[in-house]
Structures are given as structure tokens and as C-alpha cells.
Amino acid sequence: MNFNPWHHVEVGEDQPNIVNAIIEISRGSKTKYELDKTTGMLKLDRVLFSSVFYPANYGFIPKTLGDDHDPLDIVVISQCDIVPLCLVRARVIGVMRMIDHGEGDDKIIAVAEDDVSMNGIQDIDQLPPYFNSELQHFFEEYKALEHKTVLVEQFQNAEIARQSVVHAIENYNKVYA
């Protein structure tokens, strides 16, 4: 049996407040890596067409299934660039609601639980105001030169984000449990 981080790593004991995040892409990268659902390996999806880079560490929450039929995406804010396939305990602080290819594609926003510089952040409104703008701009622009449109609908607080996590866990359990 192959080890697949999506199916073999737990969501986290303290979910939906603190979840396990598996990083696919380090902050500052132009390289779009993605978990290969069949093998569990990290594969190169593409190098971003636009002159933009990921504004935070990016990955997924194991044993979840988003409305886009992929693991639930998570943006993990930390003072550090976190290497791909690193397991990070992430405190859920908000969600960015998106539509990508006509499907809901929530991006959970979290802070690295074990990064002392993030200790005081419990909700998205505690982030610097420019961060939401930077994140929205990145996701609206990173596919523009591929002639693909992404719509960022709104940012929601930690309570709504935790509901998204619970919904994605329930979706996963219906399909894979």
C-alpha cells in the first residue's frame, strides 16, 4: 500500500480550530506543485505564467474534500518559508471564498500554530489590512496570462472558516470513509 498524505494523515486532534496542513508550495515560490491524488507524490503542475509569487505557504488539509472535488486548500501564514510536504499545525483564522472554473474553491486562511510570531492572531481581522488585498490580488491574477478567470467573492472570519473545514471533513467521509 502506498502512503498518500491526503488519505493517511489525520485532520488534527483539535480540528476545526487547529488542523494539520500539508504544504505543497512555499511562500515566495513561482512553482505550482500539487499532490498527485493517485500516488501521493508531489508533482509539478506548472510554473506560474504571471510575474507573481505565492504570498504565503500553500497546501491542503488531509482527509477533507472541497466543493471542487480536491482536498480543502489552506494558506498558512508564518514568518518562515515552509518546505513542501512539511506537516504544519495550523490555526484556522478565516476563509477566502473563491469561484474557480465555476466551482466553489474555498481557501482556508491559517497561521502556523508553532510560530511564536503568530501567537496573538486568532481571527482574520487581526492580520495587517494589506494581506487580504495581496492574497486576493494574487489569486485573481496568477492565472490571468493562461486566460483563466478566478473570482474572489469575499473573506470570512474564523467561525465561518471552521464551518468550511467541518463541511469538507463531512464531504470526505461521505466519499472515502
TrEMBL record:
<dbReference type="GO" id="GO:0004427">
    <property type="term" value="F:inorganic diphosphate phosphatase activity"/>
</dbReference>
<feature type="binding site">
    <location>
        <position position="73"/>
    </location>
    <ligand>
        <name>Mg(2+) 1</name>
    </ligand>
</feature>
<feature type="binding site">
    <location>
        <position position="105"/>
    </location>
    <ligand>
        <name>Mg(2+) 1</name>
    </ligand>
</feature>
<feature type="binding site">
    <location>
        <position position="68"/>
    </location>
    <ligand>
        <name>Mg(2+) 1</name>
    </ligand>
</feature>
<protein>
    <recommendedName>
        <fullName>Inorganic pyrophosphatase</fullName>
        <ecNumber>3.6.1.1</ecNumber>
    </recommendedName>
</protein>
<dbReference type="GO" id="GO:0006796">
    <property type="term" value="P:phosphate-containing compound metabolic process"/>
</dbReference>
<keyword id="KW-0378">Hydrolase</keyword>
<feature type="binding site">
    <location>
        <position position="32"/>
    </location>
    <ligand>
        <name>substrate</name>
    </ligand>
</feature>
<comment type="function">
    <text>Catalyzes the hydrolysis of inorganic pyrophosphate (PPi) forming two phosphate ions.</text>
</comment>
<keyword id="KW-0460">Magnesium</keyword>
<feature type="binding site">
    <location>
        <position position="46"/>
    </location>
    <ligand>
        <name>substrate</name>
    </ligand>
</feature>
<keyword id="KW-0963">Cytoplasm</keyword>
<feature type="binding site">
    <location>
        <position position="58"/>
    </location>
    <ligand>
        <name>substrate</name>
    </ligand>
</feature>
<dbReference type="GO" id="GO:0000287">
    <property type="term" value="F:magnesium ion binding"/>
</dbReference>
<comment type="subunit">
    <text>Homohexamer.</text>
</comment>
<dbReference type="InterPro" id="IPR008162">
    <property type="entry name" value="Pyrophosphatase"/>
</dbReference>
<comment type="similarity">
    <text>Belongs to the PPase family.</text>
</comment>
<dbReference type="GO" id="GO:0005737">
    <property type="term" value="C:cytoplasm"/>
</dbReference>
<keyword id="KW-0479">Metal-binding</keyword>
<feature type="binding site">
    <location>
        <position position="73"/>
    </location>
    <ligand>
        <name>Mg(2+) 2</name>
    </ligand>
</feature>
<feature type="binding site">
    <location>
        <position position="142"/>
    </location>
    <ligand>
        <name>substrate</name>
    </ligand>
</feature>
<dbReference type="Pfam" id="PF00719">
    <property type="entry name" value="Pyrophosphatase"/>
</dbReference>
<dbReference type="InterPro" id="IPR036649">
    <property type="entry name" value="Pyrophosphatase_sf"/>
</dbReference>
